Amino acid sequence: TSEWIQSQNKFTEKYLNTFKEINLFKEILSKAYKNETRSVPFRKKSKHFYYLNNGDWQQSKLFYKNNNESEEKLLLDPNILSEDGTVAISSVSVSPNANLIAYSLSDGGSDWRTWKIKNIKTGETLKDLIRWSKFSNAEWKKDNSGFFYSGYNEPKKGDEFESINTNQKLFFHKIGQSQTKDELIYQRTDQPEWGWGTTITEDGKFLILHVSEGTDERNRVFYQSIEGNNNKIIELIPELKAQFSFIGNNKSIFWFFTDLDAPMGRVIAIDINKPDEEHWLELIPENEHALIDVREIKDFLIGQYLNNVSSEIVLFDKKTLSKSYMKFNDEGIFSSLSTEVDSNIFYFSYTNYVTPNQIYQYNALANTLKTIWIKNVPGFESEQYLSKKVFYPSKDGTLIPMFISHKKDQTINSNTPLLLYGYGGFDISILPSFSERYFAWMKMGGVVAVPNLRGGGEYGELWHQQGMLDNKQNVFDDFAAAAEYLHKNNYSQPTKTVISGRSNGGLLVGATFLQRPTLFGATLPAVGVMDMLRFNKFTIGWAWESDYGSPEDIDDFNTLIQYSPYHNITEDVCYPPTLITTSEIDDRVVPSHSYKFAARLQKAQECNNPILIRIETRAGHGAGTPKDKTIDYIADSYGFALHHLSKN
């Protein structure tokens, strides 16, 4: 396999090096990325923390300010941890007294996390070290003595990036002690597919466990009293019947977001002293728009809604539940809400396809909005571009929203290069946001189109269900129908259209172009799930059965084999030019999916259209990829696509 990887990479590199389009994309992207980027700040006590990249660093650094006014201080710099910038900060958690910070590192893009602890005041990195943690936060006890985290048994040497991840365990790490002495809080050997998401209530009295089962949006809810001698885990919601997300509490009253009997989402209150469902109270009822996030601040509950894939923020008074709206003139997406329950001030970012990220501060009590930071992208002028939303019919008549973006002065006709991106799965909403890669495509004279396929969460749980399990074919039909709509309306034509997607979106690209090979002029399947009969046999793949079904179930098998990309490659077909991309250290969707798919597709290809694979050797599924590698990847992919669309 190593020899095959080297041979394929060598051939692909030699082939791509002849394309002038790659250098043109690289020039645009290098300029666009050479700008300052910031994250939405988050506060703990008087300290305000934020990530910052000046445009030259491979990875963003973590800074903080006291009272948000003093000189900024560098807290964490991942750039010094590796020469090639492939060690990244994955997540951070600040202790309640804001004296310590726990942070996790990802090496080479792997999902495995190593946790360390730093004294914020002195800058000293403590001796504490936690390894073999994955899919976990660090949830501090209110007494600052330590934090809860989830981990797995150490894998066998050589199997770190392929062995199945089951039997997750919940631990408590006490500051200053060895990981071998960490207290095992909870495990269920009888339920190896259960996992734990943890939250400490603001009063510090309860540990809340969101008990997941794979990627199923539904979850159970358990809790444990932290105070006193009774530390038994109580099963508050023991059945897997809906999604429940803890918001906050008032003593024994717990507030949850849920889609139980409400596919668009609602908020309920449960008194843990009277936990039976007949005693549950509805605080915020379901309405016609999808409720995607609820946060607690001092005097309000903040509800974030999606209204036809555009954000609305609604404020609910905690005492009266009367509602008011945050006024914002432009249509786009609010994200990364940063809140604390001792204040009515919160922070958020705003963006859309032609508006780079903007950060705001909002005072809910005074109803005042303050601009904190606006991203400037070298070479991009927002007023020169446009983005509009259309609705098109899918194969079964369902109307699908789609955003179409391009330069205002661009001549749009059947010869315009069209980039069509999709995902469609796991209740994940693909929301309008600015992207340097899309800017580069538009700058080169192309149109970018992003449909909100079924399988996502843009219209609540029913939208998700219409694109999962035995409804999965709807997603491929939605994607193909998007291309047909764009071609019919003279935005492009099949030979000028490239389709792109990552992960579940890589599956989307693979399945769709195999079903409709003459509908596209090029394809870019990235880190895709290509073998639908064996996806559950590696790392966390088993968890996707909630969306895909199980290959071991005969009914699911009969559905999966109908669209599994690897199994639907046929001889005597001229497939469009295709650049498959993956990474050797991808332990989310293991690279063998792409290896096998590329090998079989190369063998089956009937015509001279190239079937290439590009394999990163120091990267994972995508998160934490350094700046230079990101630029090279986008330039290679888009340069390959535009070169072949231009030839057609």
Description:
- This protein is α+β, with helices and mostly antiparallel strands.
- 18% of the residues lie in helices and 35% in strands.
- The chain has ten helices and 37 strands.
- Strands 30-31-33-32-34-35-36-37 form an eight-stranded mixed β-sheet, with helices on both faces. Strands 1, 2, 3, 4 and 5 form a five-stranded antiparallel β-sheet that branches. A four-stranded antiparallel β-sheet has the order 6-7-8-9, with no helix packed on it.
- The protein is globular.
- 47% of the residues are buried.
- The mean pLDDT is 96.
Outline of this structure?
With 648 residues, the protein is an alpha+beta fold.
Number of helices: 10
Assembly of the depicted chains: single chain
Helix-strand makeup class = alpha+beta
Instruction: Return residue spans where pLDDT drops below 50 for at least 5 consecutive residues.
Output: none
Largest sheet strand order:
30-31-33-32-34-35-36-37
Q: What does the radius of gyration come to?
A: 25 Å
Mean pLDDT: 96
Distance from N terminus to C terminus (CA atoms, Å) equals 34 Å
Number of extended strands: 37
Which percent range fits the helix content? 10-25%
Q: In what range is the share of β-strand residues?
A: 25-35%
Shape: globular
The major β-sheet equals:
8 strands, mixed
